Amino acid sequence: xxxxxxxxxxxxxxxxxxxxxxxxxxxxxxxxxxxxxxxxxxxxxxxxxxxxxxxxxxxxxxxxxxxxxxxxxxxxxxxxxxxxxxxxxxxxxxxxxxxxxxxxxxxxxxxxxxxxxxxxxxxxxxxxxxxxxxxxxxxxxxxxxxxxxxxxxxxxxxxxxxxxxxxxxxxxxxxxxxxxxxxxxxxxxxxxxxxxxxxxxxxxxxxxxxxxxxxxxxxxxxxxxxxxxxxxxxxxxxxxxxxxxxxxxxxxxxxxxxxxxxxxxxxxxxxxxxxxxxxxxxxxxxxxxxxxxxxxxxxxx
Length: 301
Hints:
The chain is of the alpha+beta class. The protein has helices at residues 3-28, 37-58, 109-124, 155-161, 166-185, 239-242, 249-266, 273-282, 294-300, and strands at 29-30, 33-34, 65-66, 70-78, 83-89, 95-100, 135-138, 144-149, 153-154, 188-189, 198-201, 204-210, 217-218.
């Protein structure tokens, strides 16, 4: 900072302080009357909004606001049909994720309906091993958006650069099964248990949560009934899923077995015999020979 800049700052600080004191007195008092706390808080909110708009006017990069509470910090992920935005709450400073569709697809009715259905499922789930949906918001252009916790790393991206130990693999598999047990209890089958849909907080395996309910089905429902062809991920889907079978919880169990095999293959340590037995039991082609519930699989693990 130059000498002139320092002098200017030293001159401005007392002015700002004096004007802030005057502003604070105006917020707290209406003439001789002290304003009620609710009225004071309302004025503070209005001032905060005005300051946000003024900063936006002078900023070279004007932030976009969603629901008048979340500033868009950037795009976290974008695919052909999904857009994931990184948001920051204007008052709390906390980070959040917002899942929506790309702007070009805002009129795709089937895609928007799938997003609303995912919101309905996510809003009904409250479990530490599942990615919950906090709210269904409407973007300025009318697109729906699912407000979710900010979990910046997937198991797929972490495993690509750092092998998962067998001990951590067991911890993660237990969390996935506990989450599936809660999901199945609500009457849904995930249909796409893969490393890409397991999200982590701060690179910590013990925080793993199963998310992305975009192709989840009610138990007994078929994807064809929702206008979808085979929708699961190759290499993780149960054989009967590719044949269009009705959704059954043991299909998610098959996917957990495939997940266990993937984690063992990437591990630098020798897998335990019990974990190998668990994976083989879950991956039976015959659905009747798999563990029939997440709790059965958890006990086996």
